[in-house]
TrEMBL record:
<dbReference type="InterPro" id="IPR036388">
    <property type="entry name" value="WH-like_DNA-bd_sf"/>
</dbReference>
<feature type="domain" description="Transcription regulator PadR N-terminal">
    <location>
        <begin position="23"/>
        <end position="88"/>
    </location>
</feature>
<dbReference type="InterPro" id="IPR005149">
    <property type="entry name" value="Tscrpt_reg_PadR_N"/>
</dbReference>
<protein>
    <submittedName>
        <fullName>Transcriptional regulator, padr family protein</fullName>
    </submittedName>
</protein>
<dbReference type="InterPro" id="IPR036390">
    <property type="entry name" value="WH_DNA-bd_sf"/>
</dbReference>
<dbReference type="Pfam" id="PF03551">
    <property type="entry name" value="PadR"/>
</dbReference>
Amino acid sequence: MSEAQAAPDRSIARDLTAFQQNILVILSDEPMYGLAIKRQLEEYYDSEVNHGRLYPNLDDLVELDLVAKSELDKRTNQYELTDPGYEAVVDKLDWTFSKFVTDAGRADTVRDLVDDNA
């Protein structure tokens, strides 16, 4: 994929709220159902995350094709990071990491670290 093709997805991902970015980071570990995501967010924020905040944000991430939603059973949905969602997580980490790392002897980007360890 060329840089020009990736740019629109990147700009969308870069406009996500911190809450949405945190959901993507949680899902980068493994697919999860909504309540498991909720528990991890509550642990991170050290406060309750209500359903009215979580599920609309999950739906927005699904609409943006950053998260895929599937049915585990009649009552439970599973959420999984898509390739563009993974790229959004790496892009955010890459940008953050670039602000801290300046030594020539270190990796220039998180992507370099991920690629080296793959």
